[in-house]
Protein backbone atom coordinates (compact mmCIF):
# COMPACT_ATOMS: atom_id res chain seq x y z
CA UNK A 1 0.00 0.00 0.00
CA UNK A 2 1.30 3.44 -0.93
CA UNK A 3 2.12 5.86 1.85
CA UNK A 4 -0.18 8.86 2.08
CA UNK A 5 -0.08 12.21 3.82
CA UNK A 6 -3.06 14.42 4.48
CA UNK A 7 -3.32 18.17 4.89
CA UNK A 8 -6.27 19.81 6.54
CA UNK A 9 -6.96 23.52 6.29
CA UNK A 10 -10.01 25.63 6.93
CA UNK A 11 -11.20 28.70 5.09
CA UNK A 12 -13.32 31.16 7.05
CA UNK A 13 -15.06 33.96 5.16
CA UNK A 14 -14.90 37.20 7.16
CA UNK A 15 -16.28 39.51 4.50
CA UNK A 16 -20.00 39.75 5.27
CA UNK A 17 -20.59 43.50 5.35
CA UNK A 18 -24.10 43.11 6.72
CA UNK A 19 -26.11 41.99 3.72
CA UNK A 20 -24.17 38.90 2.72
CA UNK A 21 -23.88 38.30 -1.00
CA UNK A 22 -27.04 40.10 -2.05
CA UNK A 23 -25.01 41.68 -4.88
CA UNK A 24 -21.58 41.29 -6.44
CA UNK A 25 -20.35 44.50 -4.84
CA UNK A 26 -22.00 44.10 -1.44
CA UNK A 27 -19.46 41.79 0.17
CA UNK A 28 -15.78 41.74 0.91
CA UNK A 29 -13.64 38.89 -0.36
CA UNK A 30 -11.79 38.82 2.99
CA UNK A 31 -11.19 35.42 4.54
CA UNK A 32 -8.68 33.56 6.66
CA UNK A 33 -6.78 30.39 5.90
CA UNK A 34 -6.60 28.36 9.10
CA UNK A 35 -4.92 25.20 10.35
CA UNK A 36 -4.79 23.83 13.87
CA UNK A 37 -1.88 25.22 15.84
CA UNK A 38 -0.85 27.79 13.21
CA UNK A 39 -1.45 31.52 12.89
CA UNK A 40 -4.14 32.48 10.39
CA UNK A 41 -3.23 33.76 6.96
CA UNK A 42 -5.22 36.86 6.07
CA UNK A 43 -6.43 36.32 2.52
CA UNK A 44 -8.70 37.81 -0.12
CA UNK A 45 -9.15 37.67 -3.85
CA UNK A 46 -6.80 39.38 -6.28
CA UNK A 47 -7.42 43.15 -6.31
CA UNK A 48 -8.49 42.78 -9.96
CA UNK A 49 -11.47 40.82 -8.62
CA UNK A 50 -12.49 43.21 -5.83
CA UNK A 51 -9.96 41.82 -3.37
CA UNK A 52 -7.96 43.52 -0.65
CA UNK A 53 -4.38 44.19 -1.85
CA UNK A 54 -3.13 44.02 1.75
CA UNK A 55 -4.11 40.33 1.99
CA UNK A 56 -2.72 37.22 0.31
CA UNK A 57 -4.72 35.88 -2.62
CA UNK A 58 -4.97 32.26 -3.84
CA UNK A 59 -2.84 32.93 -6.91
CA UNK A 60 0.00 34.31 -4.77
CA UNK A 61 -0.30 31.37 -2.40
CA UNK A 62 -0.05 28.92 -5.30
CA UNK A 63 3.08 30.64 -6.65
CA UNK A 64 4.50 30.68 -3.11
CA UNK A 65 3.79 26.94 -2.76
CA UNK A 66 5.70 26.21 -5.97
CA UNK A 67 8.65 28.31 -4.79
CA UNK A 68 8.65 26.81 -1.30
CA UNK A 69 8.57 23.24 -2.55
CA UNK A 70 11.37 23.94 -5.01
CA UNK A 71 13.52 25.51 -2.30
CA UNK A 72 12.96 22.73 0.23
CA UNK A 73 13.77 19.96 -2.25
CA UNK A 74 16.72 21.91 -3.62
CA UNK A 75 18.21 22.33 -0.14
CA UNK A 76 17.70 18.60 0.46
CA UNK A 77 19.42 17.67 -2.81
CA UNK A 78 22.30 20.02 -1.99
CA UNK A 79 22.69 18.58 1.50
CA UNK A 80 22.89 14.98 0.26
CA UNK A 81 24.91 15.99 -2.82
CA UNK A 82 27.75 17.78 -1.05
CA UNK A 83 26.77 21.36 -1.90
CA UNK A 84 26.82 23.69 1.09
CA UNK A 85 24.20 26.41 0.64
CA UNK A 86 24.60 29.35 3.00
CA UNK A 87 21.86 31.60 1.62
CA UNK A 88 18.78 31.17 -0.60
CA UNK A 89 16.26 33.72 -1.85
CA UNK A 90 13.72 33.46 -4.63
CA UNK A 91 11.69 36.04 -6.49
CA UNK A 92 9.03 33.82 -8.02
CA UNK A 93 6.72 35.09 -10.75
CA UNK A 94 3.42 33.55 -11.81
CA UNK A 95 1.25 34.35 -14.80
CA UNK A 96 -2.51 33.86 -14.90
CA UNK A 97 -4.13 33.93 -18.33
CA UNK A 98 -7.80 34.81 -18.48
CA UNK A 99 -10.24 32.92 -20.69
CA UNK A 100 -11.48 34.77 -23.77
CA UNK A 101 -14.98 34.71 -22.24
CA UNK A 102 -13.70 36.65 -19.22
CA UNK A 103 -15.30 34.20 -16.83
CA UNK A 104 -12.22 32.42 -15.58
CA UNK A 105 -8.58 31.77 -16.10
CA UNK A 106 -5.68 29.63 -15.03
CA UNK A 107 -2.09 29.89 -13.94
CA UNK A 108 -0.17 29.28 -17.17
CA UNK A 109 3.41 29.47 -15.94
CA UNK A 110 5.63 30.12 -12.96
CA UNK A 111 9.21 31.31 -13.17
CA UNK A 112 11.47 30.82 -10.18
CA UNK A 113 14.48 33.09 -9.80
CA UNK A 114 16.46 31.57 -6.94
CA UNK A 115 19.63 33.32 -5.82
CA UNK A 116 21.78 30.77 -4.08
CA UNK A 117 25.01 31.38 -2.22
CA UNK A 118 27.31 28.39 -1.80
CA UNK A 119 30.31 28.00 0.48
CA UNK A 120 32.93 27.27 -2.19
CA UNK A 121 33.48 28.05 -5.87
CA UNK A 122 33.97 24.32 -6.57
CA UNK A 123 30.26 23.81 -5.79
CA UNK A 124 28.80 26.23 -8.34
CA UNK A 125 28.32 23.84 -11.28
CA UNK A 126 26.63 21.19 -9.17
CA UNK A 127 24.55 23.86 -7.37
CA UNK A 128 23.27 25.06 -10.75
CA UNK A 129 22.61 21.53 -12.05
CA UNK A 130 20.62 20.45 -8.99
CA UNK A 131 17.86 22.92 -9.88
CA UNK A 132 17.09 20.70 -12.90
CA UNK A 133 16.53 17.69 -10.64
CA UNK A 134 14.02 19.34 -8.33
CA UNK A 135 11.00 19.10 -10.65
CA UNK A 136 11.15 15.31 -10.66
CA UNK A 137 10.70 15.15 -6.87
CA UNK A 138 8.89 18.35 -5.81
CA UNK A 139 5.34 17.42 -4.79
CA UNK A 140 3.85 20.70 -5.95
CA UNK A 141 5.66 20.79 -9.32
CA UNK A 142 4.50 17.24 -10.00
CA UNK A 143 0.90 18.22 -9.17
CA UNK A 144 0.35 21.22 -11.42
CA UNK A 145 -0.35 21.35 -15.15
CA UNK A 146 1.64 24.46 -16.06
CA UNK A 147 5.35 24.82 -16.80
CA UNK A 148 7.69 25.83 -14.01
CA UNK A 149 10.86 27.49 -15.22
CA UNK A 150 13.84 28.43 -13.15
CA UNK A 151 16.53 31.02 -13.69
CA UNK A 152 19.02 30.41 -10.87
CA UNK A 153 21.89 32.68 -9.96
CA UNK A 154 24.69 31.04 -8.03
CA UNK A 155 26.99 33.15 -5.83
CA UNK A 156 30.00 32.14 -3.76
CA UNK A 157 30.35 33.23 -0.15
TrEMBL record:
Residues in the signal sequence: none
Membrane-traversing stretches: none
Top-level taxon of origin: Bacteria
Database matches in PANTHER family: OSMC_OHR FAMILY PROTEIN (PTHR42830:SF2), OSMOTICALLY INDUCIBLE FAMILY PROTEIN (PTHR42830)
Identification of the protein by name: Peroxiredoxin
Species per Swiss-Prot/TrEMBL record: Streptomyces caatingaensis
Amino acid sequence: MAETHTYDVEIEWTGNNGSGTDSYRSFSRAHEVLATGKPPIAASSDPAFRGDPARWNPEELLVASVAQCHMLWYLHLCAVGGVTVVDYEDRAHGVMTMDASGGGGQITEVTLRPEVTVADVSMTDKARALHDEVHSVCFIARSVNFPIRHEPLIHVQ
